[in-house]
Amino acid sequence: MKEKRECELCGRYDYLEEHHLIPGRGLRDLSDKYKLTKNLCRRCHNKVHSDKELLIKSKQEGQKKFERTHTREEFIKIFGRNYFDL
Questions:
Q1: All structural domains of the chain with their residue ranges
Q2: Digit-coded pLDDT (tens) for 4-28
Q3: What is the CB neighbour count within 10 angstroms for residue 84?
Q4: Which residues contact 63 (CB under 8 A, 6 or more apart)?
Q5: What share of the chain is helix, strand, coil (3-state, %, to 5)?
Q6: 16-34 in b/e burial notation, b at 16+ Cβ within 10 A?
Q7: Model pTM score
Q8: DSSP letters of 50-83?
Q9: What residues form DSSP beta bridges with 37?
Q10: How far apart are CA 19 and CA 41, in angstroms?
Q11: How many CB atoms lie within 10 A of CB 71?
């Protein structure tokens, strides 16, 4: 059984879903590999995927997290783009 935890976006205490900061075909596995995920309540998870601005911010957050230990050039080579240029 899932346990309730705190949503990393709104702080709500609920059952959480794993959100891939860099979503998309072939990119989810890379998000998993580089631990570019966060736990969101269902409401926030749906909101991120339905709001273009929030989705871009999520991708930028993933890139920023990746760049803590890698270069921007590595990010672009692996993920195919620079999300700060959107």
A1: 5-78
A2: 899 999 999 999 999 999 999 889 9
A3: 13
A4: 22, 72, 75, 79, 82, 83, 84
A5: 50, 15, 35
A6: beebbbbbeeebeebbeeb
A7: 0.90
A8: H-HHHHHHHHHHHHHHHTTTS-HHHHHHHHSS-G
A9: 20
A10: 9
A11: 10
